[in-house]
Design a protein that fits this description.
Radius of gyration: 13 Å
Strand content: 15-25%
Oligomer: single chain
Shape: globular
Order of helices and strands: EEHEHEHEH
Structural class: alpha/beta
Strand order of the largest sheet: 1-2-3-4-5
Largest sheet: 5 strands, mixed
Helix content: 40-55%
Length: 136
């Protein structure tokens, strides 16, 4: 799993990529890291990239995951089409109900544009900052 900020959004977006979420404890750990990061620093937006992870979420676990993700001011989830995208939409709906705007996408560019509009940022030009590699 890697994490880091996105293009031209400075330190306002935490990006978590390549999370291996094969077991419920794995994605609950991602939600815990997201909540911890938001509690240590001022709340930021979260970009959670679940593509290629085979992400599937049982409805009984969705509430727990949404609680962790809602620690951010807003959440964008990028998932593969199909079941993963449907599960991401379910989680985003629950995050929304907790007061944090959340949206699911299958295209990372669309997710960045949505976050840019939500944060009032400009995505033109510049290179994305380097990705960080946290240890879980």
């Amino acid at each position: 799993m890697t994490s880091g900020p996105g293009p031209n959004l400075g330190d306002r977006v935490v990006v978590v990529r390549h999370a291996s979420l094969g077991e419920p404890r794995d994605w609950l750990a991602v939600a815990d890291v997201a909540a911890l990061t938001a509690s240590v620093e001022p709340p930021k937006a979260l970009m959670l990239d679940l593509r290629g992870s085979g992400f599937a979420l049982a409805s009984r676990d969705a509430d727990v995951m949404a609680s962790g993700l809602a620690a951010y001011r807003m959440v964008a989830v990028v998932a593969d089409p199909g079941v993963s995208y449907g599960c991401a939409r379910m989680a985003c709906t629950l995050v929304d109900l907790r007061g944090s705007p959340a949206a699911a996408f299958t295209d990372e560019g669309e997710a960045w544009r949505w976050l840019s509009v939500q944060l009032g940022a400009d995505l033109r030009g510049g290179l994305p900052p380097p990705q960080l590699r946290p240890s879980l």
